[in-house]
Specification:
By secondary structure, the chain is of the alpha+beta class. It contains ten helices and 24 strands. Strands 6, 7, 8, 9, 10, 11 and 12 form a seven-stranded mixed sheet that branches. Helix 1 crosses helix 4 (about 205-210) and helix 5 (about 220-230) packs across helix 10.
Length: about 450
């Protein structure tokens, strides 16, 4: 018989978060190491016309963009009807990737401090190509070698017979605006084995990762989402005060899901209204939102050295932010119960603001998203955190968001508009240890809080 919870883990994680240097490279050397790995391999990404795609084609019956293997993913269409907001029913392309991938980070205690094995991984959609990534970041098609490439390093710690202790393991959603019901397994495993790092991997403390999260486009999205699920709150923390009890918070989420009617219908890509296909893109005539494009990739450090694929390219940089303020001396974050077409459970908790401002500039001020103007006009003295981070570089091209944590006006009322609620970081972190409660953008900011990248709230 064992305890149901490992009570010492939050303390061990806190010690790792406080360790801004570790047994691996110095924190200020990591960016240089990444640059050295870029020089050590041949990396290149070129835009190409759809006709130059190898193994990909538009299906003659549906117009869907599919791979000849039937694996990896496809670009299809959806029609969406929601019961609120300024938008009438709309149609759009979307990525359909039903297989579940693995995002895994291997942990090991070195000199009494937890370290995490991080990878210098190239993704074709990253603006700077190579970023700090999980130990394993692979789709099922990748690790079952549909591409007939090399084995995924360290995969044995996350599949097959257990070779360590599970610290976190949860199925999490991906971007709900661009993926249709996509999920990945976010898992963190601790080992006692001696694991010499390959030249593309390094052991780092949580505190080192936190300092690196303050830099633009250095820690990738997949690493951020895994770190968001760390159990950083102890039992005593969960008894702390908040505006709403945990039971009230869960009831509020359930009520929000029940009140929204969202209908999502899969459509052939060729029938999606308002979008047209050119030799190099599937896009809207007004240029808003995003386009589907194609690239040719060379990557000397990947399981396959060269390939071609489609990517989604957003047409503007996003702004993603939590408003924060204290109630009774306790920090709270303002979450938004955000409906997205690709989510399995209608909605998930999102940051206060999660938008590309240019996509809403044509709307009347009253129809623009709440709190967006406040975040865009925030006094720099109220900004507790700010960095530009890439979104998922394996499927999105140059997709970046300006991530912020902004101190709200002290007069902001405790009762926000419908669809918004004040919760503590601990409450949000507890929900992130379970599937489909906290969206991927909110998990990025939660990872920044967990790793100490955000200043005092």
């Amino acid at each position: 018989m064992r305890r149901r919870a490992e009570t010492g883990l939050p303390g061990r994680l806190a010690r790792s978060a406080a360790a801004t240097e570790g047994a691996g490279p110095r924190t200020d050397e990591v960016a240089d190491w990444l640059a050295e790995r870029v020089r050590a391999h041949r990396f290149r990404v070129d835009r190409i016309p759809f006709a130059a795609l190898d193994g990909w084609s538009f299906a003659p019956d549906s117009g869907n963009l599919v791979h000849r293997s039937g694996r990896f993913f496809s670009v299809e269409g959806v029609g969406v009807t929601v019961d609120h907001g300024p938008f009438p029913p709309w149609q759009q392309p979307i990525i359909h990737q039903p297989e579940v991938g693995i995002l895994g980070i291997l942990a090991k205690e070195i000199d009494g401090v937890l370290h995490f094995l991080m990878q210098a991984k190239m993704e074709p959609g990253n603006r700077n190509l190579l970023q700090l990534s999980p130990t394993v970041q692979a789709t099922r098609s990748n690790y079952t070698k549909v591409h007939k490439g090399a084995d995924v390093r360290y995969l044995e710690y996350f599949l097959g017979p257990r070779r360590g202790r599970v610290l976190a393991d949860v199925l999490q959603s991906e971007h709900g605006s661009w993926f249709l019901r996509k999920a990945n397994r976010n898992v963190l495993v601790e080992t006692d084995e001696d694991v010499p790092p390959h030249e593309d991997f390094r052991w780092l403390t949580l505190g080192q990762i936190g300092r690196l999260l303050r830099l633009d486009n250095l820690v990738n999205m997949d690493a951020r989402t895994v770190l968001a699920g760390l159990p950083t709150s102890s039992a005593d923390d969960r008894l702390a005060r908040a505006l709403h009890t945990d039971r009230e918070l869960l009831s509020w989420i359930t009520a929000q899901r029940a009140r929204h009617e969202v209908r999502v219908e899969r459509l052939p890509l060729a029938e999606v209204r308002g979008w047209h296909r050119t030799p190099t893109a599937v896009e809207r005539a007004d240029g808003r939102y995003f386009r589907v494009v194609a690239v040719a990739v060379e990557a000397g450090s990947r399981e396959t050295a060269d390939w071609t694929q489609p990517l989604i390219e957003p047409t503007g940089r996003g702004v993603t932010a939590f408003l924060t303020r204290r109630f009774g001396g306790v920090p709270h974050l303002l979450v938004h119960a955000r409906v997205e077409a690709g989510l399995l459970d209608v909605l998930e908790l999102a940051p206060t603001v999660q938008y590309v401002p240019e996509n809403y500039a044509h709307l009347d001020p009253d129809d623009r998203p709440p709190f967006l103007a406040e975040v865009l006009a925030a006094d720099p003295r109220r900004i507790r955190y700010e960095a530009v981070h890439s979104e998922e570089g394996g499927r999105f091209l140059d997709a970046e968001s300006r991530y912020l944590v902004v101190e709200a006006d002290p007069g902001t009322p405790p009762d926000p508009p419908e669809g918004y609620l004040w919760v503590t970081p601990g409450q949000l972190g507890a929900l992130a240890q379970h599937a489909r409660y906290v969206n991927v953008q909110a998990r990025t900011l939660l990872a920044c809080i967990n790793a100490g990248a955000v200043g005092p709230l």
